[in-house]
C-alpha cells in the first residue's frame, strides 16, 4: 500500500452547509403556506330549497318495507321455481327410464314367445318325423296296393287299409295341429302388436300431458313475474 494523506474535516464548513440547507427548507415551507393562503377556496353560497321529496317519513318507511317484502318473496319464488324445475326434470328422467325398461321387457317377452314357438314347432316336426318313420316301417311288412286288388281281399289287405287310414289320420291331425299353432302364433302376434300400439299411444299421451303441464307452469311463472305487485293487493296475507 502506497502512502496517503489524512485530511481532517472542517467543522465550520459543515455547519454552514447544514444551516444553508435548513434555511432553504424553511423558505420552501413558508412559500407553500403562503400559496395555500392565497389559493384558499371562498365561501359557498347555495340557494335555499326544500329537501326530502314530496313524501312523508311514514310513507318512505312503508315503501322500504314493501320493497323488502317484495325482495324476500322474489327470492322465495325463485327458489320454488328451481325446486319445481328440478323435480320436473327428475320425473321426466324417471319416466324415460321406465319407458326404456318397459320396451326392453316387451322385447324380451316377445323373444321368449318366439323361442317357445320355435321349440314347439321343432318338437312337432320331430314327432311328425318319428311318426312317418313308424308308418314306413309298418308299410314294409305289408303288401303293395296292386297286389291287394283281388276278388276277395284277405286279412293283409284289410291291415294295409287300416295302416293307411291310420297314417292318413295322423297326418291330418299333424296338419291340424300345425295350422292351429300358426293361427295361435298369428293371434298372439296381432295381440302383441295391438298392445304395443296401445302402450305407445299411452306413453305419447303421458309425455304430451307432462309437456303441457310443464309449459303451463312456465307460463304461470311468467305471468307471476310480469305482475309482481299482485301480492300487495287487499286480502294478501304474506
Overview of the molecule:
- Keywords: Coiled coil.
- This is ESIP1 protein.
- It comes from Chloropsis cyanopogon.
- This protein is mainly alpha-helical and about 240 residues long.
- It has a domain at about 100-140.
- It contains 3 helices and no strands.
- The chain has helices at about 10-40, 55-140, 155-225.
- The longest helix is centred in the middle third of the chain and has 84 residues, at about 55-140.
- The chain is elongated, with a radius of gyration of 55 Å.
- It starts with 10 loop residues before the first helix and ends in a 12-residue tail after the last helix.
- Residues about 145-155 and about 230-238 have low confidence and may be disordered.
Topology:
Layout lengths: L10 H28 L18 H84 L14 H72 L12
Task: Give a quick precis of the structure.
Residues 75-125 form a coiled coil. This protein is mainly alpha-helical.
Q: Given the C-alpha coordinates, what overall shape results?
A: elongated
Show unreliable segments: 144-153, 230-238
Helix content: over 70%
pLDDT averaged residue by residue: 79
The string of secondary-structure elements, in order, is HHH
Radius of gyration: 55 Å
Number of strands: 0
Main sheet summary: none
Distance between the termini: 99 Å
Structural class: mainly alpha
Percent in strands: under 5%
Q: Helical segment tally?
A: 3
